[in-house]
Specification:
This protein is an alpha+beta fold. Helix content is 70%, strand content 10%. A six-stranded antiparallel sheet has the order 2-1-4-5-6-7, covered by helices on one side. Strands 8-22-23-3-24-25 form a six-stranded mixed sheet. It has a five-stranded mixed sheet with strand order 13-15-16-17-18.
């Protein structure tokens, strides 16, 4: 592809439009200084936009427009051998300038032209065009700037840009890694804190499990003891069973009744739990789900209604537009019909006038044979006038069309601008509405989140209170049963105690047990009960004879073993006065008892002292047997016993009446607690329902806002598309208006010229007519001219009418197409409305179905409430029946006891022990143990002590620890991913650096090789390019190391002016050879060279011209002689450049 023609118009010194042909090979442009030779190269640079205004030797682009022509625009067109044509036009305006570039007649962007040129090797840094100052500029460059030339050629900037982008990404990754490391440090610190809490929690759970296991073992050990007692008692009462058969039978009936009632009670409890538990919650969930479905369906109906409303509006607009289009099509058709008639009439009028003109011309010919010359001249002038008038008529028609189009564009622009303003205002309103909706939605979501938290808390609280209520009720029932049992015992024997002691205590000389004879104040009862231990049941008797008789009775009756304290034989220890820190006194001194039994109590307690605290008692271990007020026992031997009590030890001050009173007091407190908890549950349930209702309302409002926002957003997208289309249309109209103004100005200028020409020609006609005044030719000529004017006017009107018909036909075609589009739009909207109607009907069906479902659920809910109340009433009646049956059994037991005290006592003992064994078996389950109760109690005390030592623990720390540990793992994985990403980025940066280096070195080596060859050829010497730092070429510059023939090696700075120019030219040729292009242009690059060097340069260019086109501006003879052809340029007197011609050397 090479340049075939350059057309210059009003550019710099070329005032007139000048077409300059170019051919393949080597062409030289020559002429006097100042003739405008270089302006040809400037024109090439200008049209290709390969340089700035300063490089084109102008302060600004408008300086390129010739000031002497009176025109305010300049234009350059460049044609290539493949038919490509690039035209650039610059126009001065009051505020600046306009620049247009056309590619093959189409208005284009500069980038499109650059891409086209780049595909053919024409690049700004490829030195396709070398101006006068380029040689000097390269010579005066610093080494660093000269190296930048290689950078541009190698495309280093692209690698630098990629590297900068990778560095930016690396910085982002580094920040993200730092954030992850910060999070990891915080999580690790939190993990360390949780580790300690977790360790405490695990230890606490371990001791808790141990405690639970030991408690289970205690039940098993107690079971073994009670089973042994039960076996012994069974042997005793076996002989008495027949006598008690009737009472046993009656009792069995009552027990069976109680069993049945308890079974009924369990079933009632199960039903209550079921109806107030999962099933009831499922009912509530179904109700909420149905309500949510209704809300969603209503929202769908609302959304569909709005969409249908919008569709109906669009349908209405479409029908209105369709009606308008149909009306306009009919109007256009009618107008075309009328204008066609007018056109026919005008055509007939034109034909008539043409015939009249021909007739007058024949008359003129017949009467003007004597004035042939004047007549011919008159006819010629008149034909010339008619031609100009016809041309003016055409131009006037074009002007009318331009003015009409300008009016239509202005009207359309005003309409579009008005629509654009309305769209902008509506878009702003919609945008504000979206913002308000988003803010309201955010507020509602926050409120909903708060409600969810409150609702969760309330539901958890109600659930916990229900669990607490069941526990309180169970505890109340246990206390109630215990009271019944104790009251029954009181009815039988008046006081709790061992049944085996009853016959003994009735004997003469027997005073009672230590527990019965002594009373202790409440603050010391625990300490004294622990200090006495099992000795509380020792029996005080008068003497050893009574004791012996009682022992024989126990043996005979096989009632077990009892320890007796005969007052006549006891030897109590002496108790010296004591006074130690924290010591309250001797234990025996804390009791109230009859004085005659003092010896017995001193034997039981011995030298045991009561201490205020365990810490103070520990200081005296080994000196005394001690007991603290909290019940810790320290033996003189050093043994220590303590811990928690499952039940307070009975003994001194623990009479049955006190126990019953305590239990009844506790039952009253429990009743109050149960009532309070039930009220709290009711209140909490009401609050939960209110919260759920409010949350449902918020959900509905959020859904509504989402639908509205979605609809507004969809409308905004439509507005935005329409706005973009309108802006593009306005921009296109403005461009067309500017183009129309330019065309109108050109037409007016042409009209002025034609009008002047017609006036001059008319003067000539008048002169010729004076010569022909003696003939009829002037009159006939005037008639001829008048008829021609009439004919021209008729033809003009005919052309206008045809143009109007064509415009009206196009308008009718436009509205016909618009009618088809509107019909399709109407069908689409109608189909969508039908779909919306179906969707609304489906949603309505869903609403009705769910309303029916809600009614059923609410009815079921009412049934649940009534059923629950009925079940609670039944529960109360059955509980009362159980209580009554229990009282009947107690009455039977009391009757039997009154008649057969001993037998009944044994039987009651058996029943009680059997019940205890059964309870213990149910509690023990599969648990078994070989440990003694004492060992188990010690283990329980130790476990409880360890738990208290641990104190308050965070049991959630175990799960929290695992969660944090999981988060650390996830963060480490994320950090690893980021680290790999960082490594990848570092590798990319290193790869870009390597590619940049390789690209630079590839270009450098190739250009250096070319330079070596070209320099050697031009100078018969040697030379090469030198990098300051070959390891890192970008840190240094580039210079030349050259050795002209018969001279030492020099750098560029040490060479003469001509040598510098020659070296620089060799460098430019090396670059051009590395980036080959189809054409090159040089502007007086040989001005600093001597003749021989110019001849060498010309020879080289001539050889290179075999493959590329060379256009050289030069005044040097060797260059001119070496060219294939010479293009001459000179300067005319009006200071405009003129191409004198082309001379070929072939």
């Amino acid at each position: 592809m090479h340049i075939t023609e350059l057309e210059i118009d009003n550019f710099k010194s070329f005032i007139k439009k000048t077409k300059i042909p170019f051919y393949e090979g080597f062409s030289v442009i020559s002429g006097p200084n100042g003739s405008g030779k270089s302006n040809i190269i400037d024109a090439i640079l200008f049209v290709l936009a390969l340089s700035t205004s300063r490089t084109l030797r102008a302060e600004k682009l408008t300086d390129l427009i010739n000031l002497n022509s009176g025109r305010n625009s300049a234009e350059v067109t460049l044609t290539f051998s493949d038919g490509t044509k690039i035209r650039r036009r610059i126009k001065r305006s009051p505020t600046g300038y306009y620049s247009y570039i056309y590619l093959n007649g189409r208005l284009s962007k500069q980038s499109e032209v650059n891409d086209l040129l780049a595909r053919h090797g024409i690049k700004p840094h490829g030195y396709n065009v070398v101006m006068q100052g380029d040689i000097t500029r390269i010579i005066e460059m610093s080494d660093f700037e000269r190296r930048k030339i290689i950078d541009e050629i190698a495309g280093v900037a692209e690698f630098d840009q990629k590297k900068e982008q990778a560095l930016s990404e690396l910085e982002v990754v580094r920040e993200r890694i730092e954030r992850e490391e910060l999070l990891l440090r915080e999580l690790s610190q939190r993990l360390e804190e949780l580790a300690r809490e977790r360790e405490q929690a695990l230890l606490y759970r371990q001791w808790q499990e141990t405690l639970q296991r030991l408690e289970g073992m205690r039940v098993a050990a107690t079971l073994h003891a009670r089973e042994r007692d039960l076996a012994a008692l069974s042997r005793v009462i076996e002989d008495e069973r027949i006598a008690l058969e009737r009472i046993h039978s009656d009792r069995s009936l009552e027990e069976n009744e109680i069993a049945y009632l308890k079974k009924d009670l369990e079933e009632i409890d199960s039903q209550i739990n079921q109806k107030s538990g999962a099933e009831y919650l499922r009912l509530i969930a179904d109700l909420e789900e149905a309500k949510a479905t209704i809300r969603l369906a209503e929202q769908s109906i609302a959304r569909a209604g709005k969409e249908k409303e919008a569709g109906l509006e669009g349908l209405s607009r479409a029908y209105i537009d369709q009606k308008r289009a149909e009306t306009r099509v009919a109007e256009c058709t009618q107008a075309i019909r009328e204008m066609t008639i007018d056109r026919t009439n005008l055509a007939m009028e034109v034909a008539t006038l043409t015939a009249q003109v021909g007739k007058i011309e024949e008359q003129i010919k017949s009467q003007s044979r004597d004035a042939e010359g004047a007549r011919d001249e008159l006819f010629s002038l008149m034909q010339e006038v008619e031609a100009k008038k016809g041309e003016r008529s055409t131009l006037l028609h074009q002007k009318d069309m331009l003015l009409e189009r300008s009016r239509m564009r202005t009207s359309e622009k005003e309409r579009l601008e008005e629509r654009l303003g309305a769209l902008t205002l509506e878009y702003q309103e919609k945008d504000e509405a979206v913002e308000r909706n988003l803010q309201e939605k955010g507020r509602l979501e926050k409120e909903k989140a708060g409600l969810d938290r409150i609702l969760s808390d309330r539901e958890s609280s109600v659930f916990a209170k229900r669990t607490s209520l069941e526990r309180l009720r169970e505890e109340f029932r246990e206390y109630e049963q215990e009271v019944i049992r104790l009251e029954a015992q009181q009815q039988v024997r008046g006081e709790a105690g061992s049944r085996a002691l009853e016959p003994i205590l009735r004997m003469e000389g027997v005073y009672g047990t230590i527990a019965q004879l002594g009373r202790a104040s409440p603050e010391y009862s625990t300490a004294l009960n622990v200090a006495a231990g099992s000795k509380l049941h020792y029996v005080v008797v008068k003497d050893d004879t009574v004791a012996a008789r009682a022992i024989e009775f126990l043996k005979e009756q096989k009632l077990g073993r009892v320890t007796f304290l005969p007052l006549t034989k006891l030897k109590p220890p002496d108790l010296p006065p004591v006074k130690e820190p924290g010591m309250i006194g001797y234990a025996v001194d804390m009791l109230e008892f009859p004085p005659q039994y003092a010896a017995a109590f001193r034997v039981v307690f011995g030298g045991t002292v009561v201490m205020q605290s365990l810490a103070q008692a520990r200081k005296l271990i080994g000196k005394y047997r001690m007991v603290t007020t909290e019940g810790e026992l320290l033996e003189k031997s050093g043994a220590m016993t303590g811990g928690s009590f499952r039940k307070p030890p009975r003994g001194f001050g623990a009479a049955v009446e006190d126990e019953v009173a305590r239990l009844r007091s506790r039952m009253e407190n429990l009743s109050e607690e149960i009532a309070q908890v039930e009220e709290e549950i009711k209140s909490g349930t009401r609050e939960i329902e209110e919260l759920r209702t409010k949350r449902g309302e918020i959900d509905a409002e959020i859904s509504r806002l989402a639908i509205v926002t979605e609809e507004i957003t969809r409308r905004e997208e439509v507005f935005q598309r329409e706005k973009t289309q309108i802006e593009e249309a306005i921009s296109s109209l403005e461009e067309e208006m500017r183009s129309g103004i330019a065309e109108l100005a050109a037409l007016e200028a042409a009209l002025d010229r034609i009008t002047d020409t017609v006036a001059q020609t008319q003067k000539k006609i008048d002169q010729v007519k004076k010569k022909l005044e003696d003939t009829q030719i002037p009159a006939l000529s005037e008639q001829l001219e008048k008829k021609k004017r009439e004919r021209d006017e008729a033809e003009r009107r005919l052309r206008n009418k045809e143009s109007d018909i064509n415009d009206m036909a196009r308008e009718r075609q436009h509205f016909s197409s618009r009618l088809e589009e509107l019909k399709a739009e109407i069908e689409r909207i109608s189909a969508r409305n039908a779909d919306i109607d179906r969707e609304i009907a489906l949603s309505t069906e869903q609403i009705e179905a769910n309303k029916v479902k809600i009614a059923g659920i609410e009815e079921r809910q009412k049934q649940f409430s009534s059923e629950l109340q009925e079940l609670r009433d039944r529960h109360d009646r059955v509980s009362l029946a159980i209580k009554e049956s229990g009282e009947k059994i107690l009455a039977l037991d009391a009757t039997a006891e009154r008649h057969r005290v001993q037998l009944e006592a044994l039987n009651e003992r058996f029943v009680a022990l059997s019940r205890e064994v059964e309870d213990l078996r149910s509690q023990a389950g599969d648990m078994d143990t070989d440990m003694t109760l004492e060992e188990i109690e010690d283990g329980i005390a130790k476990a409880g002590l360890e738990i208290r030592k641990i104190g308050a623990v965070n049991m959630l720390a175990i799960e929290e620890y695992e969660r944090v540990e999981k988060r650390i793992t996830e963060r480490n994985e994320k950090k690893e991913v980021l680290s790999r990403e960082r490594e990848n980025l570092l590798e990319r940066i290193e790869r870009f650096e390597k590619m940049k280096f390789e690209a630079f070195m590839t270009a450098f080596r190739a250009i250096d090789a070319n330079f070596r060859e070209i320099f050697a050829r031009l100078t018969s010497g040697s030379g090469h390019l030198v990098l300051e730092n070959e390891e890192d070429p970008f840190s240094g510059g580039l210079s030349f190391a050259v050795q002209p023939r018969d001279k030492p090696v020099h750098l560029l700075s040490a060479l003469s002016g001509g040598e510098k120019s020659l070296t620089t030219l060799a460098f430019i040729f090396s670059i051009q050879q590395y980036i080959p292009a189809p054409f090159y242009a040089f502007d007086e690059v040989d001005m600093s060279l001597d003749g021989s060097n110019v001849e060498r340069i010309a020879t080289m260019i001539r050889e290179l011209a075999q493959t590329s086109q060379f256009i050289i501006v030069s005044l040097r003879k060797p260059m001119i002689e070496g060219a294939d052809r010479i293009l001459g340029v000179t300067l005319l007197p009006d200071k405009s450049s003129f191409v004198t011609g082309i001379k070929s050397h072939a």
